[in-house]
Design a protein that fits this description.
By secondary structure, the protein is an alpha/beta fold. The chain contains eleven helices and twelve strands.
């Protein structure tokens, strides 16, 4: 059997995942030229073009699109098998990587309950996307959307809507009987700016459009934060009104610390997901956590 070079296959998988020969070379510890040469040799071996090259930009051809998911899964399982073998030699914590938006408000209470009920030790890492499962020895990733993790097992956590929230004292001052927030100045709208891997959502301009407001454009942006928990905290401290994922404020709404002054909501564009290498599903601690999250 005339198999292609393993180095060439690895170079292709890394470049396809990173979207760049330069980034792939940095991950593999070689130059971008070396990555390009390895992929060219692989293309010659297969008799197929895997990438379309346009200057410094690359994109997958149909052949590359068909090949990449299978190869990503294969490398993921190879790496995972080696890691499981290593972990059998020593006691290891279950490593859970969590998007900042989910960490404190959604996952932490579940993690504490899981630890109390099972005794499993958790290493919780609050990280932006993308993460490197193999290099960082991550068992499970909890994040928003799955486009960055095509070669991994993905299970939906939940889909959500975004809603405006504020403190009761704030709404007493800026009350609007129609719930369109017409009395709230632009400067008191709290904006949540997502990390570099995502387009920020939801946007106040989108909400105003859905509410049928006359003024959609935000002329005087208020407080801008890069973490949803900070936006929620600011709203609880009467600093303004935040537009956030509804699930993340359920407890605050139930307790009365926050109120939602309008029934107008926006569907989130993607769902929150649990992502993990396929071979991790066989680990007992992973199965326990998935069952605890209702994903078993």
């Amino acid at each position: 059997m005339n198999l292609p070079s393993l180095n060439g296959l690895r170079a292709f998988e890394t470049a396809a995942r990173c979207g760049s020969f330069v980034l792939a070379g940095a991950e593999l510890g070689v130059s971008s030229a070396a990555v390009s040469l390895q992929i060219k040799n692989l293309e010659n071996h297969l008799g197929k073009k895997l990438f379309v090259r346009k200057g410094n930009r690359i994109s997958l051809t149909d052949a590359g699109e068909e090949m990449y998911p299978k190869l990503a899964r294969a490398f993921g399982e190879l790496s995972d098998a080696a890691q499981i073998a290593r972990s059998n030699k020593r006691s290891r914590q279950l490593v859970v990587s969590v998007l900042p938006a989910l960490s404190e408000l959604w996952f932490l209470p579940k993690a504490l309950k899981f630890k109390d009920e099972t005794g499993v030790s958790l290493d919780i890492r609050v990280q932006e996307d993308p993460v490197e499962f193999e290099r960082e020895e991550i068992d499970i990733r909890l994040t928003y959307g799955s486009v960055l993790y095509g070669g991994y097992r993905q299970i939906p956590l939940f889909f959500d809507v975004s809603r405006p929230v504020c403190s009761p004292a704030f709404w007493a001052q800026y009350y609007d009987p129609q719930g369109k927030l017409a009395n709230v100045p632009d400067a008191l709208l709290i904006h949540n700016k997502w990390g570099p891997s995502y387009a920020s959502e939801p946007l106040w301009s989108d909400w105003r459009r859905a509410a049928g407001s006359e003024a959609v454009e935000i002329l005087n942006p208020g407080l801008v934060v890069s973490d949803v928990s900070l936006a929620i905290s600011a709203a609880k401290q009467d600093a303004g009104i935040a537009l956030v994922s509804s699930t993340l404020v359920n407890s605050d709404l139930a307790s009365g610390r926050l109120i939602s002054p309008s029934d107008i909501t926006l569907p989130m564009k993607k769902g929150y997901v649990c992502v993990f290498p396929i071979a991790r599903a066989e680990m007992p601690t992973v199965r326990l956590l998935l069952d605890s999250l209702g994903l078993g």
